[in-house]
Design a protein that fits this description.
Elements lengths: L9 H16 L15 H4 L1 H25 L18 E10 L2 E6 L16 E4 L5 E4 L5 E5 L2 E2 L14 H12 L3 E9 L5 E9 L3 E4 H7 L4 E2 L12 H14 L9 H5 L10 H21 L1
Parallel strand pairs: 5-8
Antiparallel strand pairs: 1-2, 1-7, 2-5, 3-4, 6-10, 7-8, 8-9
Helix pairs in contact: 5-6
């Protein structure tokens, strides 16, 4: 009988049976061994070669699966240029720092691979009450939502823009502490990964986070001389901003009826891009004035 139930290698097995019968007829003692080191036929038989080839293919396939789909990416430095625009990442949003960026803990395979119930997500820190919460930036990707620019919060000594708190709170409630899928395009000058972000709702409905912010008037279309990223959705993003302006929702909302009766008028909205340009100009002027004095 062959050592594997395959049709391959039957000639070798039959030859072994003949040798066994011949040895018994001659009165000699013959011990049957599944592998005879002195017989090269055991290594060159068809079934041995096929078995070795299948084992090698399975090993390479499992390694490729792990490397491309199951290996966790702990930071932007681990993203090779060949990754951008070709792959996506599934992860858990550990924190939201601004109206258009957040921290993502990559969880390859999601809950099916035990993330969140068998495997720990993020760096867990104890609160004053003794409870444990997910926090910290170690082992996370800093994600910048592609195609949109939300009003700037107060940081680096700069004042906050109107509607910045609304954008921040909405993003926290929409993606904070939830699983999302991101489609990376590039790394920006702040070492953030610029991505289109999609959140799945009710298992089947996919919602583009950037597009939703534009529809709600919580952000403007990202405008820059270079580095703008939209994927394939630039036309949809600009149309969403146009409709939000027409409907006067979010940051585009003017004074209400009572405000108009009190004499309030609509002020020209300063976009996040114009705000950053103005702040940079003011800071440069202040530095020059300080140097002269």
């Amino acid at each position: 009988m062959p050592w594997l139930p395959w049709p391959f290698g039957q000639s070798t097995s039959r030859q072994a049976e003949k040798e066994e019968a011949s040895a018994l007829e001659g009165g000699s003692t013959w011990t049957k061994s599944p592998l005879n080191k002195g017989d090269p036929g055991h290594y060159t038989s068809t079934q041995t070669i096929v078995f070795s080839a299948l084992t090698s293919i399975a090993t390479i396939s499992l390694y490729t699966l792990y490397k491309n789909h199951l290996r966790r990416i702990p930071g932007a430095d681990y993203l090779k240029p060949s990754f951008f625009r070709r792959r996506s990442l599934y992860g858990y949003v550990t924190s939201v720092g601004d109206g258009d960026n957040f921290r993502l803990f990559h969880t390859p395979g999601g809950r099916l691979m035990g993330w969140g119930w068998l495997r720990q997500i993020g760096q867990k820190n104890k609160t004053k009450s003794g409870k444990r919460k997910i926090g910290g930036t170690e082992g996370t990707l800093h994600v910048r939502i592609a195609g949109v620019d939300a009003p700037e919060c107060a940081h680096f000594g700069r004042p906050e823009q109107p509607h910045s708190k609304e954008a921040l709170e909405w993003l926290r409630s929409f993606v904070g502490g939830r699983y999302v899928r991101v489609y990376p395009y590039r790394r920006d000058q702040y070492d953030r990964v610029v991505c289109t972000v999609v959140r799945r709702r009710w298992l089947v409905w996919k919602q583009d986070v950037g597009l939703t912010m534009l529809k709600r008037g919580l952000a403007t279309v990202y405008e820059a001389k270079f580095g703008s990223e939209f994927g394939t959705e630039e036309e949809a993003y600009r149309e969403a901003e146009k409709k939000a302006k027409a409907k006067k929702v979010g940051m585009w909302h003017g004074p209400g009826l009572v405000g108009k009766m009190l004499g309030q008028t609509s002020k020209p909205l300063e976009s996040p891009r114009d705000y950053k340009s103005r702040m940079a100009k003011d800071e440069a002027g202040a530095s020059q004035q300080k140097a002269k004095s």
